[in-house]
Design a protein that fits this description.
The structure is a single chain. About 15% of the residues lie in helices and about 40% in strands. The chain has about 300 residues and is of the alpha+beta class. Strands 11, 12, 13, 14, 15, 16 and 19 form a 7-stranded antiparallel beta sheet that branches. Strands 3, 4, 5, 6, 7 and 8 form a 6-stranded mixed beta sheet that branches. A 4-stranded mixed beta sheet has the order 1-10-9-2, with helices on one face.
Length: about 300
Amino acid sequence: MLATLVAAPFDHPGWVYEEKYDGDRMLAYKEDKQIRLLSRNEKDRTAKFPGIASVLRNLRPATLLLDGEMVAFDQKGVSRFQLLQQGKGEPAYAVFDCLFYDGRDLRQESLAKRRTLLEKVIPPNKTLLISRRLAANGLKAFRVAQAHGYEGLVAKDLSSPYAEGRSKKWLKVKVHQEDEFVIAGFTKPDGSRQHFGALLLGAYHSGKLRYVGKVGTGFDQKTLRALHQQFRSLIRDKATLVDPPRERGVTFVAPRMVAQVSFQEWTADGKLRQPVFLGLRDDKRPQDVLLPELPA
């Protein structure tokens, strides 16, 4: 179940407001002592998080299916995608839903009931935690997210069942702008920079890859070298962007890689302002990276 992005915070009766985590979405399957951790595109991540798998294995129910986010927290207790990707800090699994419990399919039950069962299953600890509720009022919850520097909040209708796909029963409001974009090319390096200068970014709209800007910050030398190595087999003579930038020194690549990028805002002409590269995402297909509906 995926949340729909909305432009502004709100308060609705019968809704709850949770912290939006900046990590990797993950489903956790438990069948007796067998544990599987699967990413959004069904890649098995169990071996990558043995400590979390061990804690899940010791939970009481014989069968469980949990939905949550794999995260790593900074010193202020804020989840950071970069920390998780770079293997810095102890990973934790922030759980926000329970789909199966002791053989029972809970997907048609209300979120309120699923959350009650979840709170019975998950003992509070640093490795396995239940998603934080920020405040009962949605506008106050947004101010809490702002004050703590969270990525944003997710608002959920307590009466809603669990439905696969994008839903308007779950809505997300971002404090910090951050999203995924397809890497469509790169520019030549300037000065002392090696390997490449900036990445050309795009997102799909009506089946076509649209140019949204360049990102030239957020790379260390190791990242520059590793990305450039990956680009070698993807270089193409022509752009896959339908509206590529008109500038010299651009090398186009096949749209196979997805970057996580933070940015200040969208410009009036639909480009990213002050983007910063955070890392690669291998849990999302490039064709699923869609251009958001921008506010007028």
